[in-house]
């Protein structure tokens, strides 16, 4: 491809978005595409601080943690996403600024959250893996050693609603039923992605 493509996976914790991002990466590589799989928060210096906050090792207000996410995102774009796009790669990110809005809306105004993220590059496609919060908690109970800041039923219900709300406000959002097998979800996503990528060749 002469130009790269930017694909984002979003969803509440335990939605399966990380699995879908990896499956898409593997499939596109098999089909000859150059692919970079990345994530937020990053493993960079700001991302490490964020992870400590999510685990409760550091005590941040919601406003502070969302501003940290925004700083980490700027670092992410400068060091990882934009260079890969300039090389013509498909960049797949596990979370992006939609997470800041959906989770931040638990305590902060949506318009402020949108404003602090308004200068960032918008992806070509965003896949929201939508699942029931009850299913999310069941999955997290078996996959996580320690509970993180946002992992309780009421918060996850609100975040899911926030995601569905913002999915109607941004272009190129695809809401995917996540209450199915990983293979079924992957097939649906792959059809959409391949249809888009082959128009770029």
Shape: globular
For the termini, the CA-CA separation is: 5 Å
Numbering strands along the chain, what is their spatial order in the largest sheet? 2-3-1-4-5
Return the string of H and E elements: EHEHHEHHEHHEH
Largest sheet: 5 strands, parallel
Roughly what is the average pLDDT, rounded to an integer? 92
Per DSSP, what share of the residues sits in E-state strands of 2 or more residues? 5-15%
| Uncertain spans | none
Using only CA atoms, what is the Rg?
16 Å
CATH superfamily: P-loop containing nucleotide triphosphate hydrolases
Tally the beta strands. 5
Helix residue percentage: 40-55%
Number of domains: 1
Q: What is the second-level CATH architecture?
A: 3-Layer(aba) Sandwich
Count of helical regions: 8
CATH topology: Rossmann fold
Coarse structural class: alpha/beta
The level 1 CATH classification is: Alpha Beta
Question: What does this entry show, briefly?
Answer:
The chain contains 8 helices and 5 strands, in the order βαβααβααβααβα.
Question: What does this molecule look like?
Answer:
- With 201 residues, the protein is α/β, with parallel strands linked by helices.
- The protein has one domain: P-loop containing nucleotide triphosphate hydrolases (Rossmann fold, 3-Layer(aba) Sandwich).
- Helices cover 53% and strands 13% of the residues.
- It has a 5-stranded parallel β-sheet with strand order 2-3-1-4-5, with helices on both faces.
- α1 packs across α8, α2 packs antiparallel against α3 and α6 crosses α7.
- The radius of gyration is 16 Å and the shape is globular.
- The N and C termini lie close together (5 Å).
